[in-house]
Each structure stands twice: as structure tokens, then as C-alpha cells.
Amino acid sequence: MDVYGLLGNPVGHSLSPPMHEAGYEKLDIDARYVTFEPPVERGADAVESAAMLGVSGLNVTIPFKQDVLDAVEPDDTAARIGAVNTIDFSTDPPTGHNTDAAGVVRALEHHGVSLDGRAVLVGAGGAGRAVAFALAGEGMAVDIANRTVEKAVDLAADVTESVVDGSASGHALDELSDLLADADVLVNATSVGMEEDRSAVPRDGLHADLAVLDAVYSPIETRLLRDAADAGARTVDGAWMLLYQGVEAFERWTGHRAPVAAMNDALRSSLET
Ligand code: ATR
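^ thats the input. predicted complex w/ 2'-monophosphoadenosine-5'-diphosphate below
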């Protein structure tokens, strides 16, 4: 039996175990997915322990996504983003990947959103970094707006330096309405809206030519997504991004095409409970 898991602290309410185990069940793979919660300062040690114990793969979440970089061989995407959310132990040393980046692309593609033109990204934290590299990597021009403007400017510089086709620029939140006028895609990667009825994006900037993805999935229908739907925009909820970062990890670990519908059903029923 293969053991996969999630490394985080806290990990109590994770939706990853039912999502991945639904995939194993559907494909008849003999595997389990469990959660590990080491002390916050022991993330890299936990990766070494997992390797020793024969764990096949780990997802990594807050607060360990940066800490585990030293314990793995990061691929180019993870190194650029500066964060690892998936570790593959089939190699020595284990390799580190960032499936949040591919996850946002696949979530948008699933909804038929074309990834050319302009994107507005709100947020320049950990999730924001993954989204910025992913969308610019698809060739989009990405305007990044963040409460702390310097972080948006720094992230835009990092993206511009390493991405071939796309580009990025950093902005303040009060520029959002102007930035959105020309945008095709909007992604919220801030925590605004999580367990609260607030949006980081002014309603008057939203319009019918936008596709709007909110990385927040609790609640599943955020204030931003309601405002976007009212404005006639296409909406993609945060569970799709969560699903596809998991699908990417599943496929890397097992070598099988993931049963996306089964994993999505399990994820959505866990979200409801
Ligand atoms: P994550 O890993 O989920 O991205 P993070 O790295 O702590 O978490 O980043 C949180 C993001 O939400 C940041 O972009 C943060 O803005 P700052 O960089 O200015 O801190 C943004 N954020 C959090 N609370 C916010 C608020 N009340 N208004 C606007 N942005 C907020």
C-alpha cells in the first residue's frame, strides 16, 4: 500500500484526504492519504522523516511551503515561485513541485476561459505568487494589485525576469477599477472573503467580459463571485483551484490520469459537511 499525505499545521479541516482517496478508489489504487501535523519549526525534518518511513508523496501547506525547499530538489516552477506544495519521494533526493500554479490554469481551462490577453491578480502572498507565474507563463499580461504595494511590485519584477512570453506590473488596490476595464481574467488570491461577506474588488470594476476566479472556497460563493455574477461575468469558485492542484499532484504521484469527476464530487460533498 502507498501512503500519501498532507504536511501542515494545522491540518485538521483538510479536504485533501477525501478528494485523493476518492481518486484511489475509482482507479482501484491501493493507497491511503493521511494528514501530518509536525511542530511549526520542524517542516524540513518532517520531510526527511517521511522519506525514511517510505511515504510516497506529500502535499505541503501553511506554514511549511517555503521551509521544505531546503529538503527537496525543487523544479523550475517551484524554485521561481519560492514555494513547494507537492513532494515526490520516488527520486533521491525527493523533488519539490508547485501544483498551485498548474491548478489555477487547469481550473480556468476547465471552464473554457482562454488564457491570452490581460489578467488582474489581487494578492501577492503565497497563493498570489503561484497565480502570477502561472498566468504570465501562459503568455498573459498580469496586473498585480496588493494592499502592500511593494510586494506587488517585487512579484511583478520576479515574474518579468523569468517568464518568456507574459509580463507583469505591480499596483495598489485603489487602481483596481481602472485595471479591470481592459482585463479578460480576474483572480482573487487574497484571503479577503474567507468566512466573511467582504470583497477586495470594487463592484464597479466588474463587467460581463470578465472571467472571475476566487481562490477562496469557504464560503464557496463569496461576495466577489456574487458581485461578478451580478455584473454578468463568468465565475469559477475556489474549489476548482483546490481540485486541480490536487489532480496535478495525484497524476504526478500515481502516473495515472486523475478521475477528475470522482475527486470533484468527493471534494464538494466534503465542503458541504
Ligand atoms: P496565502 O499563502 O494564502 O497567499 P499570505 O501569503 O498571507 O497567504 O497572503 C495573503 C494575501 O492576502 C496578501 O496578498 C495580503 O496582502 P498584504 O500582502 O498586504 O498582507 C492579502 N490580504 C490579507 N488581508 C487583507 C485585507 N484585509 N485587505 C486586502 N488584502 C489582504
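The radius of gyration is 18 Å.
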